[in-house]
Amino acid sequence: MATFKEFRNNVKPNWCPGCGDFSIQAAIQRAAANVGLEPEQLAVISGIGCSGRISGYVNAYGFHGIHGRALPIAQGVKLANRDLTVIASGGDGDGFAIGMGHTVHAIRRNVNITYIVMDNQIYGLTKGQTSPRSAVGFKTKSTPEGSVETTLAPLEIALAAGATFVAQSFSSDLKQLTSLIEQGINHEGFSLINVFSPCVTFNKINTYDWFKENIVNLATVEGYDPTNRVMAMTKLMETNGMITGLIYQDTSRRSYENLVPGFSQESLAHHDLTLSQDDFNGLLKEFK
Amino acid sequence: MISQLSWKIGGQQGEGVESTDRIFSTALNRLGYYLYGYRHFSSRIKGGHTNNKIRISTKPIRAISDDLDILVAFDQESIDLNGHELHDNGVIVADAKFNPVVPEGVTARLFAVPITAIAEELGTSLMKNMVASGASWALLGLPLEVFNKAVEEEFGRKGAAVVEKNIDAVRRGAEFVLEQAGGPLDEFQLEPADGKQKLFMIGNDAMALGSLAAGCRIMSAYPITPASEVMEYLIKKLPKFGGTVVQTEDEIAAATMAIGANYAGVRTMTASAGPGLSLMMEAIGLAGMTETPLVIIDTQRGGPSTGLPTKQEQSDVNAMIYGTHGEIPKIIISPSSIEECFYDMIEAFNLSEQYQCPVIVLTDLQLSLGKQSCEMLDYDRIVINRGKLVSDVPLLETHAQFKRYEFTEDGVSPRVIPGEKGGLHHVTGVEHDEIGRPSESSINRKKMMDKRLSKLDNLQITNAIHVDASYEEPELLIVGMGSTGGTIDEARARLEQEGIKTNHITVRQIYPFPTELFKPYADRASQIVVVENNATGQLADQIKLNVGCAEKVRNMLKYDGTPFLPSEIYSRSKELV
Ligand SMILES: Cc1ncc(C[n+]2csc(CCOP(=O)(O)OP(=O)(O)O)c2C)c(N)n1
Ligand code: SF4
Ligand SMILES: [Mg+2]
Predict the structure, then answer these.
(1) Which end of chain B is more exposed for a tag (fewer CB within 10 A), N or C?
(2) Residue B397's pLDDT is what?
(3) In what order do the strands lie in the sheet with A191-196?
(4) Do B315 and B377 sit in the same domain of this protein?
């Protein structure tokens, strides 16, 4: 069985020292080992951004796509080979701005993949513009007087879109994050894990200390029930989304692959492509 | 007896024009006639004039006709809009209910049949299309049993009583008109057909079927006219083969999902039209850069923007060639017949894996939606070639990665799919080295660009151009693509009768342009006239750019939304010589 070390490669990440993304990388490697995967059974599909580099930093199959499109690529991979464990990953701009349309529909579609958003409330790679996750009034290169647009509440949107697994974590809490990724992988269906991942270079507001002061770990909330959708929504609204842990899980709904009529239970990628003469003749009938 | 005939049915959209046409032509197909259909429809669903025209022939045909023999009209508007197409001996079969009038200047005979009245008498006005088609079928003097069989199949699932009623309606229509006309019309008696079994389908069906035969198991797509039939066909069939169609949220998702699935080893495609293709451009670049196979169908329609969504055009050539940013290898092939729609999809999937690059299959609305006879498709021509897809590769040493982008003689690198133990590698749209790691080294950059682009140096496509060159030094070399080939040939036959020598080339491989093959024919022609449904001469520009002889190239353009007629190509060619 592979240990987390086997999910490391010898590529040195180009992230700034102290960037939150490092722990997410470590958490993915640990979670993959903990759920018993071998590197070739994992595919990490990422978008474009500092965060998007993640697919190159895990020893597994990796696909670094285009900005905002990690999710459709990842769903394509999973549908092609359902034996693979597929993790999609990218930044808050990637998933909640340019790729928001895909995010909502991937949630609705509920293909069995895990989506990890590395949420630093800013655009890191393009050197510090506002993101949909930036706070109102947040000054960035593109909002010199402070952002006037409302901060997006992605997890509330996810619940409204029918998400079957919604979690949030903080890159400093490696233990919780690893455990949530494991749960996400084991969940049948689409699992969304938003991770507060401080950008030490461009975001001087949402820092490690700021998060530590402001977030509430759901483990400490008495009576919190992650199977209760209304409670999940209420809690997110009450706290302005500043909670970590498993927020909501619905295990009753089957994943897309299991609901689509006729969809193969075996990996399609390993199917024989040839059409039999009989099948071919049968197909021609309706055109005669 | 005659060897060909044109029949048209017109009415309000939603009035049964489609189903009448379907039954009428299925019966003709069973009799072994060659058919070629043209649908005139608008973006409205209910209401608005619509008509379907079928040309019926004892010999292969691939063009709509200039004129019309029989017009079946559900309303006066259909007569007013289409009556002028009828030749002097033409016939109108119209519903007596609206007191049909033959417009001034039209000499056709009118048969006013109480279409609605008979249908209502039999229980429902819904059956008026059966009364009407029965009447027009009877005028042709063709066997009624064959027609009734088609009716039975159309309504079979609604139960025996419904079938019975509809057959009754057909009989009543036939009886009425035969009495009026005093029997089938002599001048419309068709010679018997060759009786060879043929298929009757639209290009989109043929492409969907071709994809299935090619081993396509997933299609990701977003609905759009005139491409939707491809996904609608495949969603009915793919589940039987374990696959599915995913209706995505947009075309960006459609293309990128197809890239993901192809990367993971499943032949996957998407199909769209201009607006969707515009959205896919970044994804096409990703497929080019990551050397991921990808097959996309572009069913061209009237652009730009939403343009003329239900009309014929061939104006995406430039967009398909130049649409992506940066420089990638890509292949564009354009089927020009219904049979090619089928075989070209198999070739497209093979090419996309052999050359590990995007392949665009370019059709146009008339080819995609025009229903036509298709020679029996040949099972033995379904050959699958997955190129350098490898499996069971040797295990890797610790930290080593599979060289997915290995430099090779022909530029194509071995490819493994995820799941393979010895195949771990990284794929990225960022410039990368042999194992797929981002690299900004200028030496690597140049080598990788050359590697990717050189893949197509060895591109081998059978029938890159179709040549019909009976003359050593023709006055005109007529060049076309897509659905225009048959129309060009009919025009050429008329020109030939007048002693005008023409050769004909249909360009199938649009990009990279098959210059070597094309040039000798261009050199020997006095003039090269390029027939295309667009306003700027996009194919002509490719010829000028690649082959040269700009001084000899003439544009023959049509961009009013309708396909060329043989007479138009004939008269415009005549003006040129
Ligand atoms: C279509 C397109 N538009 C713009 C860009 C430029 N771009 C690259 S990453 C990025 C935003 C990055 O922000 P985020 O997704 O939050 O990732 P982070 O760098 O913060 O991890 C932008 C705008 C691009 N690569 N592609
Ligand atoms: S810019 Fe910010 S997000 Fe990007 S690597 Fe540096 S710290 Fe991380
Ligand atoms: Mg960000």
Answers:
(1) N
(2) 84
(3) A216-217, A243-249, A165-170, A191-196, A114-119, A85-91, A42-46, A61-64, B426-428
(4) yes
Note down the domain range covering A77: 4-287
DSSP A99: T
C-alpha angle A84-A85-A91 in degrees, rounded to nearest 5: 130
The predicted model scores a pTM of 0.96
Structural domain including B504 reads 465-576
Mean pLDDT across chain B, nearest whole number? Answer: 95
The string of pLDDT tens digits covering residues B356-380 is 999 999 999 999 999 999 999 999 9
What is the number of domains present in chain A? Answer: 1
Q: Which of A162, A152, A154 is nearest to A229 (CA)?
A: A162
β partners of residue B113: B95
Q: Cβ of B446: how many Cβ atoms within 10 Å?
A: 10
What CATH number should be reported for the domain holding residue A82?
3.40.50.970
Query: Burial, B390: exposed, middle or buried (Cβ in 10 Å; 0-12, 13-18, 19+)?
Result: middle
Output the ligand 2 site: residues, CB below 6 A: A 15-16, 19, 21, 50, 120, 124, 199-202
Provide the residue type at A72 as one letter.
P
A79 chain-B contacts, CB cut-off 8 A:
218, 244, 246, 257, 261, 266
Give pLDDT tens digits for B196-212. Answer: 899 999 999 999 999 99
Q: Tell me the torsion sign for CA atoms A80, A84, A90, A92.
A: positive
Q: Which ligand is nearest to the CA of A21?
A: 2
Best probe of the A interface among B157, B426, B437, B439, by most A CBs < 10 A, is B426
3-state secondary structure B155-168: HHHHCHHHHHHHHH
A-B contacts (CB, under 8 Å): 206
Q: Which of A44, A106, A88, A41 is nearest to A255 (CA)?
A: A106
Q: B502-507 and B476-480: which strand pairing?
A: parallel
* Residue for token pair 């995406």: B316
Q: Within this chain, do residues B475 and B561 fall inside the same structural domain, yes or no?
A: yes
Q: What is the domain-level CATH number for residue B327?
A: 3.40.50.970
